């Protein structure tokens, strides 16, 4: 077995026993990146020199008996919207093509404390706006299961890298499904934690009331480990919650007896691909066999979540992206006579078409005369949706839905129809509206050989229940015996 | 009510964006379609409902108003497209 095939918890054991060194491990990843990434194009930048230097240092420390974290020397890939001091953070945008982060995101500080090693920064839809990674200003990322298809988005690079085994695990960010949907399309495990569980400090803001950083991993155990490493209160993020720090690996228990799972009927009905639907029903059956109760329920108001999401997310984005003015950082136009020219031309030349579309939509719904009808109304409907979730969680421990209504679509298929692209998020956006945690787990392959994922939604700060149910499913199924085929596609 | 080209131009102005003729056409059509979809939220009865102002029902979080110096000024300025003596350079904004 090659080193890149192992999960992180297996690699940790090997490092601890001295069977491998971090340098060997890190080198093996860069070798594989050079072989495989030209087909996948997951990485925007690689950080080989720094990584190997750090790996050697970890090996020396470990050898000399210094106390090091058991995760020291484990490589990781990071979505290119999180700041690592001294390295480029581009958000896959021309606007930030040359931006060097002057400080670390809190999640990076936390990973540094554990001695993790950064392989590189991963491709995404520009400013995390999109569901296919086709809106990256640099290049498109390919799905390892079929190179002619998208990996999903916006954390498409992060999910494709784990699936292609060119990173053992990665961090993504999720505003409306950007961790879970690409994880589903690439056949890996993606978790969006409860809003406020992981600090957003140093994550380039898209929609501040919805954004959350989370792990993308090969299995559920790695997901629990990585969440342990990145979660926790941070005074630099005023929305970070001061909740008791938990060890999520304690929830990796193979037992769902007595657990109550709701199956909202709206997510196994119209608009959901038949093969996806059948697959979700099989997952439901499996949970019943394992001792859980699965019951059909309704989240009727969920059908408005996508509309609410695009109003709120774009409103927040139009405000957040106001900072890009060509003065302090980021792209500056060469054509200007006045200060106003700098603002207008830099923004017009620096932002891509989808980002502009969302700024326009966001500006419109916040503008005088439309604020009440759109933004204010959407914020009220958000409350209605949150209340509907609260009601469901009085009855159920978890909700089960598909992660994505379809498996991976073809590159280019939805590019000219923004609304179609937005509707690819119907199963994931309600969760962000509610600020809830949810995980996508792979369950089967469709007739085209593409991964299907299911989503487990928990109540706020109910990650432990998600981990328990996810781990139980994983222990009683065998999806990981399937490997991406890297078939098709012009490279 | 369909959004007009003039409204798109007005909104682009507010957002400090220049749009080409082609972009105006495109975004007008896109916005018409997206807003028609967005209007479905009017089917939800929100009478007596308050707005969600924070995702996790947190109230204002205040910290001590203390000055903290960011040491790495050089790194910050390195990202400026144009700078001079520790300051950001912009074109002249005051007429003689």
Features:
heterodimer, A: 491 residues, alpha/beta, Amidase signature (AS) enzymes, eleven-stranded mixed β-sheet, B: 96 residues, mainly alpha, Histone, subunit A, two-stranded antiparallel ribbon, 3 helices, 2 strands, 4% strand, flat
Write the layout of secondary structure elements.
The complex is a heterodimer of chains A (491) and B (96).
Chain A (H helix, E strand, L loop, with lengths): L7 H10 L4 H19 L2 E4 L1 H16 L11 E5 L26 H8 L3 E6 L33 H8 L5 E6 L5 H7 L2 E4 L19 E6 L2 H11 L29 E5 L9 H16 L3 E5 L7 H16 L18 H12 L2 H14 L4 H25 L2 E5 L15 H6 L5 H6 L3 E8 L5 E8 L4 H13 L16
Chain B lengths: L4 H10 L6 H18 L34 H6 L4 E2 L2 E2 L8
Antiparallel strand pairs in B: 1-2
**Quaternary state, please?**
heterodimer
Largest beta sheet: strand ordering of chain A: 1-3-2-4-6-5-10-11-9-7-8
Helix content of chain B: 25-40%
* Strand arrangement in the largest pleated sheet of chain B: 1-2
* Structure summary, number of beta strands of chain A: 11
Report the structural category of chain A: alpha/beta
Structure description:
With 491 residues, chain A is α/β, with parallel strands linked by helices. Chain A has a single domain (3-262, 280-298, 391-481), classed as Amidase signature (AS) enzymes (Alpha-Beta Complex). In chain A, 38% of the residues lie in helices and 13% in strands. Chain A is built from 15 helices and eleven strands. Chain A has helices spanning 8-17, 22-40, 48-63, 106-113, 156-163, 180-186, 220-230, 274-289, 305-320, 339-350, 353-366, 371-395, 418-423, 429-434, 463-475, and strands at 43-46, 75-79, 117-122, 169-174, 189-192, 212-217, 260-264, 293-297, 398-402, 438-445, 451-458. Chain A has an eleven-stranded mixed β-sheet, sandwiched between helices. In chain A, a hairpin with a 5-residue loop joins strand 10 and strand 11 (451-458). In chain A, helix 2 runs antiparallel to helix 3 and helix 9 packs across helix 11 (353-366). The two termini of chain A are 27 Å apart. Chain B has a domain at 5-42: Histone, subunit A (Orthogonal Bundle), CATH 1.10.20. Chain B has helices spanning 5-14, 21-38, 73-78, and strands at 83-84, 87-88. The model of chain B has no long low-confidence stretch (mean pLDDT 90). The relative contact order of chain B is 0.07. In chain B, strands 1-2 form a two-stranded antiparallel sheet. With 96 residues, chain B is mainly α. The chains are: A alpha/beta (491), B mainly alpha (96). Chains A and B meet through helix 9, helix 10, helix 11, helix 12 and helix 13 of A and helix 1, helix 2 and helix 3 of B.
């Amino acid at each position: 077995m090659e080193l890149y095939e192992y999960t992180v918890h297996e690699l940790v054991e090997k490092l601890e026993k001295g069977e491998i060194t971090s340098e060997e491990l890190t080198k093996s990843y860069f070798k594989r990146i050079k072989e495989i990434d030209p087909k996948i194009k997951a990485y925007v930048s690689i950080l080989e020199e720094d990584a190997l230097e750090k790996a050697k240092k970890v090996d020396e420390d470990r050898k000399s008996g210094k106390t090091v974290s058991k995760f020291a020397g484990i490589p990781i890939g990071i979505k290119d919207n999180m700041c690592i001091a001294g390295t480029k953070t581009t958000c896959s945008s021309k606007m930030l093509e040359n931006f060097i982060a002057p400080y670390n995101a809190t999640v990076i500080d936390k990973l540094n404390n554990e001695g993790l090693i950064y392989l590189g920064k991963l491709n995404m839809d520009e400013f995390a706006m999109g569901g296919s990674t086709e809106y990256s200003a640099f290049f498109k990322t390919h799905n390892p299961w079929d190179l002619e298809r998208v990996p999903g988005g916006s954390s498409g690079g992060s999910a494709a890298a784990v699936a292609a085994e060119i990173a053992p695990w990665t961090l993504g960010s999720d505003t409306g499904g950007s961790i879970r949907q690409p994880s589903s399309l690439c056949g890996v495990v993606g978790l969006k934690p409860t809003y406020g569980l992981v600090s957003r400090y140093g994550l380039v803001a898209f929609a501040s009331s919805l954004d959350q950083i989370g792990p993308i991993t090969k299995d559920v155990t790695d997901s629990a480990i990585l969440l342990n490493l990145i979660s926790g209160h941070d005074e630099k993020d005023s929305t970070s919650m001061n909740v008791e720090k938990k060890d999520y690996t304690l929830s990796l228990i193979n037992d769902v007896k007595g657990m109550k799972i709701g199956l909202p009927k709206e997510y196994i009905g119209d608009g959901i691909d038949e093969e996806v639907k059948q697959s979700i029903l099989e997952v439901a059956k499996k949970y019943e066999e394992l001792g859980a109760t699965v019951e059909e329920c309704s989240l009727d108001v969920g059908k408005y979540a996508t509309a609410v999401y695009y109003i709120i997310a774009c409103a927040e984005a139009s405000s957040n992206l106001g900072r890009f003015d060509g003065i302090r950082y980021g792209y500056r136009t060469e054509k200007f006579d006045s200060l106003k020219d700098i603002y207008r031309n830099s923004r017009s030349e620096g932002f891509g078409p989808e980002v502009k579309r969302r700024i326009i939509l966001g500006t419109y719904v916040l503008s005088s005369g439309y604020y009440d009808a759109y933004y204010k109304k959407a914020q009220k409907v958000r409350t209605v949706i949150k209340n509907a979730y609260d009601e469901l969680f009085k009855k159920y421990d978890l909700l089960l839905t598909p992660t994505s209504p379809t498996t991976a679509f073809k590159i280019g298929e939805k590019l000219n129809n923004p609304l179609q692209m937005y509707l690819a998020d119907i199963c994931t956006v309600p969760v962000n509206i509610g600020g809830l945690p949810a995980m996508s787990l792979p369950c089967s392959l469709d007739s085209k050989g593409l991964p299907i994922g299911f989503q487990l939604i928990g109540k706020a700060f109910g990650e432990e229940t998600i981990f328990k149910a996810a781990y139980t499913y994983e222990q009683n199924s065998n999806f990981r015996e399937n490997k991406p085929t890297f078939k098709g596609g012009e490279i | 009510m369909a959004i007009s080209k003039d409204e798109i131009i007005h909104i682009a102005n507010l957002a400090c964006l220049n749009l080409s003729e082609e972009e105006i056409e495109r975004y007008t059509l896109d916005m018409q379609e997206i807003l028609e979809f967005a209007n479905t939220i009017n089917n939800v009865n929100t009478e007596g409902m308050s707005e969600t102002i924070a995702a996790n029902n947190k109230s204002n979080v205040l910290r001590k108003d203390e000055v903290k110096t960011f040491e790495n000024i050089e790194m910050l300025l390195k990202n400026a497209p144009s700078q001079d003596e520790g300051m950001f350079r912009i074109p002249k904004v005051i007429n003689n």
